[in-house]
Design brief:
single chain; alpha+beta; signal; DUF3887 domain-containing protein
């Protein structure tokens, strides 16, 4: 290998490393608003990138729901109902108190700045035929240590995984 080629190869590898490093940093810490973070989460969700969504869950949520449980639940639902999310809009950020947030998520432990954002979207699904409907929901976020975290109600998954529901499914 000649010197010129080596330097080009080293430069290319360094550039690739920097691009991937920047992407990792920007995904976790570059959001300056709850709306930007909500858009990022829902874009990943719509693209079925559930591992990225889970990585942005709050620590308290991760302590009650494993990555494997969350990803399997979402993959099964997307496959079963042929889900497709489009026209995603995140609006109306509102700061809320710790007490309001805690009333929604009793497992909340840590402080931070708490927000809600409204997420609206068009969902296409298959259930007794193909259907489409507009939907909206309130999403809860915490900003802690200069980055946002997602809170989500784990009950649908935990209920599905409970011994009682497993026994009912096997009946």
């Amino acid at each position: 290998m000649n010197k010129k080629f080596k330097w080009k190869l080293i430069s290319l590898l360094l550039l690739i490393f920097l691009v991937f490093s920047f992407k990792q940093i920007s995904a976790a810490d570059s959001f300056d608003s709850p709306v930007g973070f909500g858009e990022y989460i829902y874009e990943n969700y719509a693209q079925e990138n559930f591992a990225e969504v889970y990585d942005n869950f709050a620590a308290e949520l991760k302590s009650v729901l494993s990555s494997e449980e969350y990803i399997k639940f979402q993959q099964d639902n997307f496959e079963k109902y042929e889900l497709e999310y489009r026209n995603i809009e995140v609006t109306n950020p509102e700061e809320i108190s710790y007490q309001e947030f805690k009333s929604e998520f009793p497992f909340l432990e840590e402080e931070g700045t708490f927000y809600t954002v409204e997420v609206s979207y068009l969902i296409k699904f298959r259930r007794l035929g193909s259907r489409e409907r507009e939907s909206d929901k309130l999403v809860y976020l915490r900003k802690k240590d200069n980055h946002f975290e997602l809170f989500w109600d784990p009950e649908p998954i935990l209920d599905e995984l409970s011994p009682e529901s497993v026994a009912e499914a096997n009946d």
